[in-house]
Amino acid sequence: MVENAGPVSVTLKAVSNNPLRHTVRITLFANNPRIDIEDSIQSNFGGVKSWAFSFNLNDPTTRHEELGAILTAKKETRGGHYAADNARYDWQTFNHFATLSEPGYGITLSNTDCSFFKLGNSTTDSLWEQSAQLNALAGGNVDKKVEDGGILGILNQHGNKDFLYKFALWPHVGNFNPVKEMKGAMEHQTPLVTGMINGPQKKNAANSYSLLQVSDDNLLLWAVKPSEDGISNGLITRFWNMGKTAAQPELTLSVPIKKAWSTSHIETNEASVPVIKQVVKMNFRGQQIRTYRVLTPVK
User: Are 140 and 163 in contact (CB under 8 A)?
Assistant: First the structure.
C-alpha cells in the first residue's frame, strides 16, 4: 500500500508473515537516487535470520567499515585485508556502510542497526569474495558451544518480539570513493535538523556558510562540538583520514584562531600545534582518526 505520498517523497508499505511477521517501508525521493528502507520484525525468533540484498553486478569488490578502517573483503593474497590462513570468513563487520563496486560504478548499502553481514554463501572457511549478494544479520544464535552442548549468545532474543532495522541504498558512478560513501551513510543515519531562529539581527544575505574548511579531500570531518569543559576551552574537531597514505592537511575556520592542540579522543591535550596565518597544520597516518582542539575568541 501507499502509506504516504508527498511533494518530495513516496513511502510504500508491505506486511508479510513469511518467514516471520515483518513490515517493510520503502521511501523514494524526487531528484535523489537514494532509497530508504525500514524493516521491522514483530515476532520472536531463535534461528539465524538475515535481510538479503542482491545486485545486478558481475564481478564486484566489497568494501566495508571496520573499527577505524575501510576494509576490502578479499584475502590478502588477492589484494584484500583478510588473512589467508587462520581466519574466519562467514560474517563481516557492518558498521555504517558496505559498498559493492566494479570499475566505474557500484552501489552502497547504509546500515544503522545490523552489526554483521555475510557475502553470498560464505562459511567460516570460505569467503565468497565476488558475490553480488549481501546478507545483513538480523539476529540469531550463529555459534554453538560444542564442548558442553550449549549455545552461545542470548537464546530466542531474550523473549523480545519487536525489532527495527534501517537501511538506505544509492548507486555511484565512478570508482569507489570511501569519503563520498561514508558521507552518504552519515547523511542517512544522522540527518540535519532544522528549526526557526529568532533574534535581533537581520537575516544573512549569503547563500552559504562554512564553519571550517580542510585542504585534503580524503579528510572526513567526523565530529565538531564545544569542548567538554565548555566553549571557552575551545572547539573540538575530529577528523578521519580515509586515504591510504599519510597526509598533512590544513584546517581553517571562519573565525580567528588563537591556539590549537592535538588531543586524545577524550579531549586531553597532547601537544601544541602551530597556528600560522590562521591555518592549523595537521598530521595523519593513513586511515588515522585524530582529534584537535582549536581555541577561538569567545563573545
Answer: no
